[in-house]
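Researcher: Next sequence.
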Amino acid sequence: MSVYRQWCYPRPVELCAVFETWHLGDGNYPAFKTGMPVNLSFEIQPTELTKAPHWTPPHLHHTGGGEYNFVGQVLRVYTTGGIALAVIETGEFRFYIYSKKAASLAQGDAVSGRGTLVLDHYIWVEYLRTYPDPPDLFYSLSVDRIQRIQTPQRLITRGNNLLTYPTHVAPSEYTPEDAQDVDAITDDGIAHYVVHFTDRDLPSTPLRPTFLGWRDA
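Model: Next structure:
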């Protein structure tokens, strides 16, 4: 498999992303532990996404709990499952957006937005072979801190033997009392995790993608 690296900016030192526990049941990722080295690609689930003037400086700003504001440039636009997949570079970080909000974007567009940084839900890593000339979205990092976020009871619906709740909630929806530092991710209840990553103290040997379904070409 060819993965094209077109990098001209330093890799990020710190990232903060949401780990939804359905990944464990689906077998996408192992249960992360603090200190664990990983190789990951990331997605931003946008709440806002608009075109921006081309002179707008790129940036990526963490506002807490895996939420980011960003300005960047569209490197590629693919279509899969009838939905646009846009690869965006902010100048210091690359990620993708898989959303109908990206339908009007074209390669070279400047964009601004905000949303939640989450682990690639497989649409990139699993289908990478199908994307022409894919940019490199993989980052070698280590798990620096894990926070377990208990879903507030008001957001859980029970009835008719059904239990429904969001896969993750925004920081504005929970309190500090709902957050607990833990050493490892477990599927032990109605919760999600906020994982802090760093590029410090990485192993010297290259890391394979951490996605459990990864297959080398």
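Model: Residues 1-10 have pLDDT under 50 and may be disordered. The CA atoms of residues 143 and 197 lie 5 Å apart.
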